[in-house]
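job 3f2a | input accepted
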Amino acid sequence: MDLPKVSVITPSFNQGSYLEETILSVLNQNYQNLEYIVIDGGSTDNSVQIIKKYEDRLAFWISEKDSGQSEAINKGFERATGEIVCWINSDDILLPDALNKVVNYFENHKDVDFLSGYTVMINENSSIYSSVFTIRQKKWYAKRGIYYINQPSMFWKRKIFETTGLLKEDCHAQMDKELLIRIFKNNFKFGHLGEMLAGFRMHEGSKSSEGNHSAIEKRDKLVLYQLYGPEYAQIKPKLFYRLIYGFEKLFQGVYFKKWAFERKWNGKKVNEMSY
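job 3f2a | predicted structure (275 res):
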C-alpha cells in the first residue's frame, strides 16, 4: 500500500446498458490502492441493481436526484481521499492497466500535476471506430482557445482542487474545459503519456449524441467567454492558430499514429486491443 491512492468517480443516470462494463473496467484495473465511487442520479432503469452487485468493492455509492452530471461528479470528489483523481462516465471505460501506467508516470515526474493520454473511440457494441491521439496540452494553445484533451483520459492530483475548487455545476457540456482553464490560470504543470488510457463511447443515448447537446455546449461556451474572455475562452479559435497546432501534430507524428492505429484496430472489439 505504498502506492498512492487513486480515486475514480463515475457519475451515472439511466446508463444500465453500459454501466456494468464501466464498473468492471475500473474494478479490474489490478491497482492495489483504488478508491471507486459511483454517484447515480436516481436512475429508473436497472442501474441501481448493477451497482448493488458490486457494492462490496466500492468505497461509496448513492442513488439520488441531482442537478446534472457536474453535481454528481462533485459529490464524488467531495468524498474522494485519493492523491490522484479522475472521473469516468458510466458509458465510457478505463483500458486495462491504465491506472498503473498513470501512477507510474506521476511517480517518475513528481513536478507534474495534471496528466493526459490517448483515447480510443468505441460504439454501442464496444467496437473500435476511431481514436484520439494528441500532444501534451500546452498553455500557449489554451490561451488561444485550442483544447485537445479528451476527458476520459485525464488524471490529476487532488491538491489542484485546493486552489481551483470543484467543477462549475451550471456547466453541463464544457465543465472539463472550464476546469482546465482554472488549472492553467493557476500555473499547474501538465504532462502527457503516450498510452491508450480510456475508451469514449458514442451511442444514441450518449450525452454527446443528444439533439440538444449543441445548444447546451453553445450556452456553456458563452458562459466561459463571459467568465474568462477571449484569452482562454475563444468561441472559435483563429484559423492561424489551428494551423500551427495541425503542423505541430504533423511534425510529432500524431496523424501517422492515428492512421496506423485505426488501420489495425478499427472494427475490432476494444477488449482485443493491445497498444
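job 3f2a | The first helix runs from residue 16 to 27.
job 3f2a | closed
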